[in-house]
Structure prediction request, 231 residues.
Amino acid sequence: EVQLVESGGGLVQPGGSLRLSCAASGFTFSDHYMDWVRQAPGKGLEWVGRIRIKTNSYTTEHAASVRGRFTISRDDSKNTLYLQMNSLKTEDTAVYYCGREIPGSFYFDYWGQGTLVTVSS
Amino acid sequence: QSALTQPASVSGSPGQSITISCTGTSSDIGGYNYVSWYQQHPGKAPKLMIYDVDKRPSGVSNRFSGSKSGNTASLTISGLQPEDEADYHCCSYTSSYTGVFGGGTKVTVL
Prediction:
């Protein structure tokens, strides 16, 4: 059974940093691009970024709203995806989901349950 | 990259059909057949309902169908049922190698 479990959320002050993790199981993690998607309270979903696989040199893309502040990485030996968030702003407050992307297309067939990040003083 | 445009809400009676639109540009919806739709109940993670414009994952009811014309994609729910009441989000790949979602549509079953 495919499972994605996010962790690392919490309360952080503006300007602070936080690292989220997404532990994957039930599939060959190293074969899949992985993405982060967030949802601010009462709002729609927002794509945050993606990381490709080793054969694509682990290249990443990030949304303009987080570019230069957030960094996506992965550790295939630990089947874990990461989101390093720096210079956090109040508008980064959201539930953060990780999602498994399907090769050759662009959609997410499995999602984690999400972890809440609150940026507030 | 601006968000895709969806109506804030759509409603229908049980058994009716409703259609949710999702409008983008030639740089996203119009340029690729990589449109997907997600259903989200309150407090839950999104669930994939449609991918590649009109394909249904295994286990998703055939009452859900997708289509695209130009820069606009659509999700149709036929034979509306109470359990279909949820938020629906469209998503597309873009020419910048990024993804973009719509603002979400709340479906109410009257």
In short: Chain A has a mean pLDDT of 97. Chain A has no helices and eleven strands. Chain A touches chain B through 24 residues (CB under 8 Å). The longest strand of chain A covers residues 18-25.
